[in-house]
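Quality-control log, excerpt.
Job 1 of 2 completed; input and output follow.
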Amino acid sequence: MKQLKIQKEIKDDYATTEAFNTLKTNLAFCGEQNRVIMVTSTLPGEGKSEVSLYLAHALAENGKKALYLDCDIRKSVMIGKYKIEGVDKALTHYLSGQATMDDIIYSTEYDNMYMVLAGPVAPNPTELLDSEEFRKLVAKVRGEYDYVIVDVPPLGVVIDAAIVGKYVDGAIVVVEQGTIRKRMVINVIKQLKRSNINVLGAVLNKIDETNSSYYSGYYKGYYKEYGEYKN
């Protein structure tokens, strides 16, 4: 297995570490059956990819074999944002028949943490994600990793999350503080539920650290239930 090099260091300051330890712990309380977890948001820019990566890293640090699976094949930012080197083949190569499953799974310099990157933008992303090849990939990694964290495009923009949701155990919604209206988030949750996707909770992201009513870190936390949004 080839190894990637993540040039941009994953932050390990106290606040970030504690926030993701909380997220990781609450995920465990959702039940050990929830191992393939999809992370989405309402709109672009809310930080779902960073939350996905950091969650995979936190799980790996806890001794779990964790895979970050980048399914944002419309507009992934991971390679550029984290200055990732060593990517030869990626998800779109596999889904379009240009690579095998083994070609696209990489180890990293972080123990127990593995990655599949999205690859070149595909002209038919919905078709590729709704394919037998994608189903087989999820089935393979489900059997080989303790956790698979699946990063998908914002559901408030495109339908990809509902398609990928057929193959996951549950979903987490990332919400940026102060930019997304409550009604928009409720609509995303309703869409997930209509697609029979188990909504595990949410991460409030990019919080205002000057507001003492919030947790003093970048990520607010994780909430298991959405009872108030059932209607």
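Job 2 of 2 completed; input and output follow.
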Amino acid sequence: MSGFDLDQLRTLVAVLDAGSLTAAAPRVFLSQSSVSEQMRKLEERAGQPLLLRGKSGVAATPGGERLLAHARAILALSDEAYRDLRGVSLQGELRLCITDYFRPGDVARMLRRLNEQYPQVRLHVTIMKSGAIEAAYERGEIDVGISMVIQERGATRRRAQGALLRRESLLWMAADGAPAPAGGALPLLVLPESCALRQFAERLLSRRGVAYTVAHVASGVAGLQLAVAAGLGVACLNESALGAGMARLQAPGLPPLPAVEFRLLAARPGESEFVGLAREAIVKTMS
């Protein structure tokens, strides 16, 4: 029999999007060993290596890149066929709001892929802070929200969260090659005072007795990344915000940081079928 197994193609997409077999496992509801076995069978079927495996994770070989493009198209067509035969149409206008911390280097590509897979969905995308997203969702001003939640021990959980899209570590970051701060107050780079991550970082430093001064306030994550790369100071950011000219900072005296989760806000009672289907599409595309 010729052709590829859909489940194996779906796992390939998850592995390359997640960057490792381990990170991909929960996305496809499999164990790490099952993911590894599926990739072994898929490579055998393809007749060539598809993944480059290393200590930092996996990347696609040239053949893997070609199959990845086919896999995305095949899976999108499979979903479209299912919806067509079941009489389910994913078309309409969707107001989507995303926290600016969510995969800043990848979010445009993911939104483009979402648009390609569901061309009859007209997206209205807004980038906001998590607190503002949750408030707008409560007021009914948006249909779907992606919010960031800091996994701070003992913290009161905000609004009930829905599907988990991604979990990342928080990191202290500075300019690539910059020496660790020595003496004096830590030059902290932050977003405005309404930012929950800024509030957390300042609270953590104060609790640990680390002297700091706010050296620069950026209006958004892109501006904060520029300030870090320019060597203006140190920032607390999520792992996927580590961009060009930036590096993880490991310095004595800096407190360890927890993880963050990016989740969809939980569905509202009476949510329309269209929004529910769009929510499922977002989970598939942006996880």
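Post-run check on job 2. Residues 92-165+262-286 form a domain with the D-Maltodextrin-Binding Protein; domain 2 fold (CATH 3.40.190.10).
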